[in-house]
Automatic annotation (TrEMBL):
Keywords: Oxidoreductase
GO molecular function terms noted in the UniProt entry: oxidoreductase activity
InterPro entries assigned: FAD-dep_OxRdtase, FAD/NAD-bd_sf
Name of the protein: FAD-dependent oxidoreductase domain-containing protein 1
GO CC entries: cytoplasm
Name of encoding gene: gb22994
TM spans (from-to): none
Amino acid sequence: MDAAAAFATVPKPTPALFSSSAPLPSSRALLRLSARGPRRGRPLLALQPRSQSQPGDASHHDVVVVGAGIVGLAIARHLLLHTPLSVAVADAAVPCSGATGAGQGYIWMSHRTPGTDTWELAVRSKQLWEELAAEVDSLGGGGARERLGWMRTGSLLIGRTSEELATLEERTKALSQAGIQAEFLSTTSLHALEPALSVGKDGGAMFLPQDCQIDAFQAVSLIEKTNNSYSPEGRYVEFYNDPAMSLIRSEVTGAVEGVQTSQNILYGRKAIVIASGAWTRSLLHNFLKPASTLDIPVKPRKGHLLVLENFDKVKLNHGVMEVGYVGHQVAKLDSISMSSESGDNEHDSSSISMTATLDSKGNLVLVPDGKPVIGFVPDMPNVLIATGHEGSGLTLALGTAEMVTDMIVGNPGKVDFSPFSIKNRF
């Protein structure tokens, strides 16, 4: 079967509360293939608001996180696990309503480049996912496979032309030198590994056996369970279906003290974290107008999921991506204008992905320089932003959460903060 139309099916996992789908960016349709089983139902209604305050009430917390995607929830989790701080999370909807719920769940290094600004963050975040999976495995009860959708599928980066194969050989060498287990596969070796996959007589691949895949819905469910275990002691509360409307400032000093939502007032004694993904830019405009000229150029980018069902006769055991996709994404970053809002240039910033799951679409977060935005807002020493993880929110979530926690409590970071800072960047 041709690589551009192949799908993976694996034995059906035991049903869990959540499941995942898979849009990741590319204007070339059918480039990413996911090695996971049939789609299960998505009982999002199970995630009902757990607000402990009545509408209009004011509540006090150490940290308020705006955004309940994988990044926002992971930040809350890390704060709860590694500090004594209390956390409130507010969101206009419920978890997995946006890009997180449409994520295919690759925890991959195959498309990362050693020495780039995001390399160390990706390495650290993958390490944290590995540690979480090992911890879940140690608890029994189905382990990480059942509770995270964790699969060490490995990844195949496919090339069809001599130029693409040369790129793959160079990438294999660079990743190996950086300590990543990587192997270049000839056409024959690739066919032996994936008999159902055809890339032509001149094709080949780079194989990373340690790359993994998770289930976004199950991962969010697990993180939610951890976070809510701190609710009885008063350290965690959620405000879902309750959009943030404005920042609350001190009438005396002008300092930011909290967030006004549609139903509640949430005071944050130590920090306010904006982790609202594709909507961070417009949210900040609402928060800061008219006094500030700050503009964080993050832009929603549509990701569509195309579905083919009843592919039982075709089986792939590994995640698959075409190397042309990686190069294409770099070119797209250089060519897309950030001057318009999400409704403009929709065709230019559209991406299509494919997997054997369920129709879905989500808004990825496009940043001009391709790096997440993680850090304090200038002149607001207690307001942080964590956004711009375009297509990599699941991969980078745990590393981002650790970084934000270190920033809030003043710890030196395990990963250099500076490449992700807002200051002097846009």
